[in-house]
Structure formats: structure tokens, C-alpha cells
Amino acid sequence: MKPIFTALSLLLLLSGCSPKVLHGQTAARTLELDAGTSRAPIQPTMYGIFFEDINFAADGGLYAEMVKNRSFEFTLPKTGWLEPNTDPFSLNARSGKSDIIKTARDQANVNFLRVTVKGPDYVLLNEGFRGMGVKAGADYDLTFDAAVGAGDIRQATFALIDTAGNVLGQTTVDLAGAERKEYAGTIRSRATAAKARLRVTFTGTGVVDLDMVSLFPRDTWKGRKKGLRKDLVQLLDDMDPGFLRFPGGCIVEGRTLARRYQWKKTVGPVADREYLVNRWNTEFDHRPTPDYYQSFGLGFFEYFQLAEDMGAEPLPILSCGMACQFNTGELVPMDELDPYVQDALDLIEFANGDVTTPWGKVRRDMGHPEPFNLKYIGVGNEQWGEEYIERYKVFNEAISAAYPDIVIVSGSGPFPDGEFFEYGMQQLTDLGAELVDEHYYRSPEWFRENATRYDDYPRDGPKIFAGEYAAQSVAIASPDNKNNWNTALSEAAYMTGMERNADLVVMTSYAPLMAHAEAWQWTPDMIWFDNLESYGTANYYVQKMYANHAGTDLLSVTEGGEPLTGREDLYASAVKDTERKELYLKVANTGREPQRLSVDLKGARAGASVRVLTMASDDLEAVNSFSAPTRLSPVESTVSLQGNTLDVTVPSHAFVVYTFTLQ
Fold it and tell me: Could you say which residues form the signal peptide (predicted)?
């Protein structure tokens, strides 16, 4: 059959244009952006951070301690520690040995290591958290407790060694005295290595007791000794978060009540904080991590301090007396609930109380006499059913009576719909709950299709905290989930719907927050790191773009009088910041074609230049990585405003933030 050339096809052939480009140049969609009317205030807490100790996010991650099992408190007390020359079949078998000694104490830090050195070849190694990341020229601060027993042991040498056994740096510390005391030294690394280990050797023979063997980089967040990993906190701080929710997540609940998170065990001297097996250490058959414990060096005081550093509201979540219902579902009897309620009341005193109060004094003794100004507290993580509502009532009554200004965060369960959700929301609404936490881990399609989720929510009920959400590229809890552009773009589209409903939705946070590349249990995650490096995913940059352009007032942006909620693949929301005198238009184009927009600005005058931040890729499977950490990240440009009209083309598969300077 002979081809038929129409006038249009001939014109396209001669001009070198494709129909797609021609369409993009001629089919502008007209939007009206009303900058003169505030539809609702944007709460300062609108975009925040949810932290949970999953995927080695605390020990081995945010908490910069490099020695695993520093006080020999794991269930298998020598976990993380190796003695390469004590194998009975080795020629050096008689070089020495070590034994775990348990003290008479029955609380925290009950074990120490008694080392018997018989010859110069005795070596003790700590493997770190999948190794230790060290950098050339950097200093690492060593501390340890020791007591010298029988014999003539005079010195201990601590060396950082690479995988080949080469010494990267070392320090020798003189030992003396039978009384246990703390020693210190500094190791400067001569080279960079991601898999270093800490080697301990001794001068002399005899017996020495070791405990609290600790190594920290000197260059921590804000230079605090034994503090937090600087690059990871910087990624969080760069988001300018409105709140920090901690410590989880399912670790709040525990697999059993005995293994729940108990905040009182995470404050005070670090050496006195009781270790706990992390509830994620054997949760998934696809990623067992039996060496995953919580030292609580990152405890509630440090969480409050981190929130303060970032200018974020602290939002602690406490056990409501129910173990994880996906595990044992163990319940504390109602007549035994008082200690759990008292924990909540005492936490508020710890955060806000005068230094003359018992828990205010604990905070003062930790170096923070000023209150943390806690405003929110969460009761339970994602419990459901009658048992949760029954316990919530008790907490709500007690907290409201003692601290009527504290906002209590309740939960609607682990799902965004279904019987558990409907029951919980109805009960909490009837009880007059102030703020309800919703969780949803669903497909990218679900996020795009539910951008109108909150449009019809009743406005006389609870406010909404979207406390945990993330698009799953494969399925919930699948180890094959990826932080690809499809998930991030779908979240960007969905977030326009949360922002459009800012009168109802007052807190939002992606989850989980971060993951160690070699020690993760759950995907996807917003930030990935190894022992040396870290990077934000495409999802991170979407969250950051929203948080950095949160604004103070919600505006209306419409097409034909209707909001943009996915019609022809276009989603949009708009806010203004009265303090910065800026206006932010956020647009997500989830379609395959570029879309030309003519945006008519009403009710305000803007400067001639509009700043544009664009994330776009037609490869929906694209991801960031250690080798390409900013492959998917915002690209900045500018465009001129024609009078009060913005004429732009939004690329296909793109999320764009337009910043107008208001005059």
C-alpha cells in the first residue's frame, strides 16, 4: 500500500518536527494560580523525618561508634570479636585466651572480657559493623576500661588494619593498676579503607580485664565527642525538617513486651544503658542479621538533642502495652497498664520538667538544663482493634489531665483502608482524638490514583499525620523493591494532594529513613550508606524539594476551576511563604509527553525571573547509587515571567518546583 502524505505530515517532514513536539508546542494548558487568598496555614511540622533503628540505621549508622559489641553484652558475648591465634589447631594456640566474666549486677553492662596473654602473638580483633570505614588523615578517638591483674602486662596497642593486615594507624597506651579505670588514645589513619578492623595486642604477659572498648571518628556532627555520623545528619538537616519522629516504628512495640523499647533504659551514662536485641534481627528470612542489637548510645536524650539541632519538633512514640501484632501480639493486662502510662508522664517531665523534678534532673545531669519543649507524644505505633482503643483511652485521660497542652498522636493501624482502619478511625474520631497517624506502603499506581484521598475527609474530626509511607516498586517488604524514579515521581504526585489538604494533613514523613548497603532488612529506604559514603535517593530529593519549599500558606491552583489531581497525568499544588516573600508552584507530570503550561498569576505581582528546580527522567527504573549519587536530583534553571503569566513546558515524567519572588 502506498503511503499517503497529508498536508500536516508534509509540514512536519519539512520542518523536522515530530507530532509529539508540535503537540507540546501548541496545546498549552491554562492554569490559574490565586496568590491573593490563603486557603489554610501550612503547619511548620508539615514535612518531617521518621527515624527507626532498622537496616543498621542507629548502631552501625547514625550513631558513629565503630566497635561492635563494645561491652560484650550481646546474647553471644563475643559477637564481633575474633581471636585469630587461639584456634587449638593453630601453631600459636598457646598465645593466650579470653573469657567472658559476668558481674553480680543484673541490669546493664554485666559482662567484661578477661584476657590471658601467654605470648607476644596474642591478637584480639573487632570486626566493626560490616567493617570500619576510616579516612586518610582522619583522627579516631579510642577509649576503653581496663584493670591489670596477675603478670606484667604494661601496654596495649590498638591498631586499625585493612583487609590485608596492613596497619593504617595505631596508638599504644600504658596500663597500670588493678582498679578498673578508663584509658584513652588517638589513632590517625594513614589511608582510606571501608573494611578496616581494630586489632588489640599487648606488651608483657598476664591478665587484663577489658570493657567498653570504643572508637569514634573525631569529626562527628557538631564535633560532639562520641556523637553522630556527620554526613548522615547533614543529609537530614539539609531537608530542614519540621519534626523528628523516633524511635520507630515496630521497635517501639517489640516482638514481645519484654523486648519493647523502654526509653528510661536509654538515658543517663552510656555505659549503664542496657543492650537489647533489635527486633529486626531475625524478622525476615531473606535478610537475617543475628548480630543486630541496640546499644542505645543513640537514646532518647540524643534524639531530643538531634531534633533541637535541626530546629525540628521532637515526636517520641511510646509502647501502649501491646507487642507487635504481626508477631506475638502480647498484651499487658489492663490492671497492669499503669507503669506504661507512667513512662509517658515521666517522659514529658524528662523533656519539659524543671531541673528540680526527678526526670528534669536527669536531663540536667546529661548536660541540658533547658527544657526540650516537647509538644507531641505518640501512644502506640500501628496497633489496631479494640485492645488498642481500650488502652489509648487510659493514656489519653492520664496525659490530658496532667499535661493538657501536649498533643497526643494516636494510630489508625498499619493499613490505609479496610476493617482495622475503618474501625480505628471511627473510634478515634468519636473519642475526639487530635492527631491520627496513618501508614501506607502501596504500589506507585496507588499513590497516583489516591492524590484525592483527603479531599473528602471530614473537617470536624482528627487532624492527619501521614507518618509512614513509601511507594513499593514490587511489593510490601519485598527485598527487590527499588528507590526508582517511578516510586519517587508517584510520591511527588501524591504529595500534591496532601499539600492541597494542608488544613487537614499537618504532618508527613517517608519511611524507612535509611539503610546500610550491606546490612539492610527492608527496602525501599530514603537514604543509603556504607561505612564511608552516603547518598540520597530520588525519593529523598522529592522529600527535600517539598520540605525546602513548605511555605506558610496554601494557595489555589486550578485548571478550569478544578484542582489538578491527575487529569491527563498532571498534578499540582501551590503555597506561599510570607516570611521569604516567595511563592512555590509544585507540578508533577507522570505522563509520557511533555506538557506546556500557561500559568496565570492572580492576586500578586512577581519578579521577572522564576527559579526552576526540575527532576525528570523517562527511565522510570533509574536509581541513584554510590557511583552516581545525584543521577536523579534537582537541576536548577530560570525562566522569565511574561507580565504575570508563566509559560513553561514540563518535561515528561517530571517533578518541578517553580519559585516566584513576590513583590
Answer: 1-23
For helices 538-547 and 485-500, angle between their N-to-C axes, nearest 10 degrees = 20
Angle between the N-to-C axes of helices 386-402 and 338-352, in degrees from 0 to 180, rounded to the nearest 10: 40
pLDDT tens for 385-441 read 999 999 999 999 999 999 999 999 999 999 999 999 999 999 999 999 999 999 999
Spatial CA neighbour of 37 closest among 659, 454, 602: 602
b/e map of 210-224 (b: 16 or more CB within 10 Å)? bbbbbbbbeebbeee
Q: Give, in order, the Cα–Cα distances in Å from 219 to each of 138, 182, 223, 356, 447.
A: 8, 22, 6, 35, 40
Tell me what pLDDT residue 1 has. Answer: 35
344 burial level (CB within 10 Å; 0-12, 13-18, 19+): buried
User: CB of 50 within 8 A of CB of 245?
Assistant: yes
C-alpha torsion 7→11→13→19, nearest 10 = -90
Angle at 397 between CA 391 and CA 400, to 5 degrees: 130
Per-residue model confidence as pLDDT tens digits over 164-221: 999 999 999 999 999 999 999 999 999 999 999 999 999 999 999 999 999 999 999 9
| Dihedral sign (CA 374, 501, 600, 586) | positive
Examine residue 249 and say whether the peptide bond preceding it is cis (omega within 30 degrees of 0): yes
At the second CATH level, the architecture of 81-217 is Sandwich (2.60)
SS (H, E, C) 598-648: EEEEECCCECCEEEEEEEECCCCCCCCCCCCCCCCCCEEEEEECECCEEEE
Domain 28-39+554-661 belongs to what architecture?
A: Sandwich (2.60)
Banded model confidence at residue 17, pLDDT cuts 50, 70, 90: very low
* Domain 49-64+227-546, CATH among 3.90.1150.10, 1.10.10.10, 3.40.30.10, 3.20.20.80: 3.20.20.80
CATH 3.20.20.80 positions along the chain are 49-64+227-546
As given in the structure block, the three cell numbers for residue 105 are: 549486677
Q: How many CB atoms lie within 10 A of CB 20?
A: 12
- Rounded distance between C-alpha atoms, residue 572 and residue 217, angstroms: 44
The answer to whether 382 is a known catalytic residue is yes
Average pLDDT of span 265-287: 94
- 27 pLDDT band (50/70/90 cuts)? confident
DSSP code for 27? -
Q: Which three cell numbers stand for residue 139?
A: 583522627
Q: How many CA atoms lie within 13 A of 662 on its CB side?
A: 19
- Listed in order, the ranges of the chain carrying CATH 2.60.120.260 are 81-217
In sequence order, what E strands does 356-512 have? 376-379, 407-411, 435-442, 463-471, 505-510
Instruction: Give the other-Cβ count within 10 Å of 38's Cβ.
Output: 17
Residue 49, sorted as left (phi over 0), alpha (psi -120 to 50) or beta, turns out to be: beta
pLDDT band, residue 3 (cuts 50/70/90): very low
| CA nearest to 436, candidates 396, 463, 456 | 463
The pTM for the full model equals 0.94
> Active-site residue among 382, 468, 491, 499?
382
Determine the angle formed by the axes of helices 386-402 and 419-430, rounding to 10 degrees: 30
